[in-house]
Each structure stands twice: as C-alpha cells, then as structure tokens.
Design brief:
Layout lengths: L4 H12 L5 H15 L4 H7 L6 H14 L5 H5 L1 E4 L2 E4 L12 H14 L3 E5 L5 H9 L3 E6 L2 H14 L4 E4 L12 E4 L32 H12 L5 E4 L5 H10 L5 E5 L5 E6 L1
Parallel strand pairs: 3-4, 3-6, 4-5, 6-7
Antiparallel strand pairs: 1-2, 7-9, 8-9
Helix pairs in contact: 1-2, 6-7
Bound molecules: S-adenosylmethionine.
C-alpha cells in the first residue's frame, strides 16, 4: 500500500523523537510539511489519505538522513521565517533567533525617539535586522559583516524582500564612512569557554557568528567604544545572559549617559540600549 500523507507525518514525528524533545517532534514534522513540502495543516487534514508522490518521499528521507546527523532544519530547507518574512539562510549565516526581534523592537523605539535618519546593522548575517529596518522605517540603512558569504545571502534577501540598503564587508564599524546614526547589532557574544556545554546544533552554525573573546564581551565592548567615539546618538545591542551589568558599567565608563538592559521572556539579559 502506498504511504499516505497522514502516515508519513506520523512516521516522521516518530523518527524525529530520536533527535528532539518528543513535544517538539510533532511540531517539527508539521514544519517539514509546511515549509519543505508546501502542505499546510489544513491541506493535510483534507488530503491526509492521499498517497505521497515518490519524489516527496525521497526528499523527506534525504532530509531525515541529514537531520539525523544534527543539521538544523533551516539549513536543510534553505530559509527561515523571521518577523513574518522569509529569509534565505545557509551555513555562512546564523539562523535568525526569535529573541532578536527584541533588538529590532528596541531599535525602532530608540531610533524614533532620537529622530535618527540613519542606522547601521553590524554583523548583519542573513540581513534580518538591517532589512527589517529598511522596510519598516524611512531611515538610510547600511549593514556590515566580516563574512563575504553572509553578505551574499543578505544581498539576495534584500533583493527578494524589496529592501534598499548598502552593504559593507569588514570589521564592525570600520567599513562605514561618515555619520553612523543608530548603531544596531547582534554580534557574536558567546564565551568560547562555554563551547562544550552548547546545544550540538550550534556546531553547524559559523563559529565566527557565535564566539567572542573576553568571555563573549569583546565585540560588544568594541562597538560601545567605537560608536561613542564616532558620535553615534545611540546603540542597541543583543547581549548574552548575565552580561548586562558588566556591559552597563563599562558602557557608562566609556561616556554613554544612560544604559538600559532588557530581559527576554526567559528572564535573561538580552538587549542593551545606550544613549
Ligand atoms: C550572531 S550573528 C548575527 C547575524 C544576524 N544579525 C542575526 O541576528 O541573525 C553575528 C554576525 O556577525 C558577523 N561578525 C563576526 N565578527 C565580526 C566582525 N569583527 N565584524 C563584523 N561582523 C562580524 C558574523 O559573520 C555574523 O554574521
């Protein structure tokens, strides 16, 4: 008997329980159908007893083979949704995280409050922050990244989403000429000493997108220093759990007048806003 969509979904969820928490396995199986095979839950409910074409079955087996080695789903399918938009990702880019939306929200709030006309997204990766700012504000947006490979993806995402911004390859703010405007960044901030305790899936993402020296603080500290030195009116940075107090004290010592730390839904330090 040919395998039906309903049966394939059940088999897939069972196979995925070997890789992820059983509560997440069913949700991930549904995600594969929706994002990988373009079959919505409603479609499956209506057509669950139809036979799955051989090509779709072959594709699911291939994804499962790679997934069993730990490769994240977003790399298998080649994109992920963030803030309601589809962003291409590949192993040159970090997979955007939901909590980075807190950085975007803070940047929108601070940028409007300071009436900025420009903003720079440092370490843009797939481009989520810079592209969202370009689409949601009238500001001039430029982005930088040290990785040429990430910038290739960010450019493609900007084109497919219809965002206008400029791209620069180099270290932090170095390639940006002239006034900076609001400095926004989700730079690498994981302490290399924590590497062995991290989820295995992180090993698939570029190490250059994750780790920073000085217990993970080096790049955020350099951004605070350089943004202040170059007269940026404000800074919005994603930070790691437990990094808020040190960064706040060092930022105030660098001359920032006011620094706020916001926590994420899990209660961890996540966003630093400096003016
Ligand atoms: C944590 S990822 C964030 C990517 C994206 N902004 C996001 O939120 O999904 C950090 C990014 O910073 C880039 N990066 C690392 N070191 C850098 C440096 N010294 N200068 C500029 N970009 C850097 C990495 O290539 C990576 O794309």
């Amino acid at each position: 008997m040919p395998q039906t969509y309903h049966q394939l979904r059940l088999d897939l969820a069972t196979a995925l329980t070997q890789l992820v928490d059983p509560r997440e396995a069913n949700a991930e199986a549904i995600r594969w159908f929706e994002e990988g095979l373009d079959k919505s839950r409603a479609w499956i409910a209506a057509h669950g007893e139809e036979a799955v074409p051989a090509e779709a079955r072959r594709q699911v087996s291939e994804w499962l083979r790679r997934r069993k080695k730990g490769e994240p789903w977003a790399y298998l399918v080649g994109w992920t949704e963030w803030r309601g938009r589809r962003f291409e990702v590949n192993p040159d880019t970090l997979i955007p995280r939901p909590e980075t939306e807190l950085v975007l929200e803070a940047a929108l709030e601070l940028g409007h409050r300071l009436k900025v006309q420009r903003a720079v997204d440092v370490g843009t990766g797939s481009g989520i922050l810079g592209i969202s700012l370009a689409l949601e504000t009238p500001w001039d947006i430029c982005v930088s990244d040290i990785s040429e490979g990430a910038l290739v993806v960010a450019r493609r995402n900007a084109t497919s989403l219809g965002a206008k911004l400029t791209f620069h390859c180099g270290h932090l703010l170095d390639p940006i000429q002239g006034p900076l405007g609001l400095v926004v960044s989700n730079p690498p901030y994981v302490d290399p000493a924590d590497q062995s305790t991290l989820q295995p899936e992180l090993a698939w993402e570029p190490a250059s997108a994750l780790f920073a020296q000085e217990h993970g603080l080096a790049l955020n500290l350099e951004l605070l220093r350089e943004a202040k030195r170059r007269g940026a009116p404000g800074c919005v940075l994603e930070i790691g759990a437990g990094q808020g107090e040190t960064l706040k004290n060092k930022g105030l010592a660098l001359g920032w007048k006011r620094i706020q730390i916001h926590r994420d839904l899990a209660g961890h330090d996540r966003v630093l806003m400096a003016v």
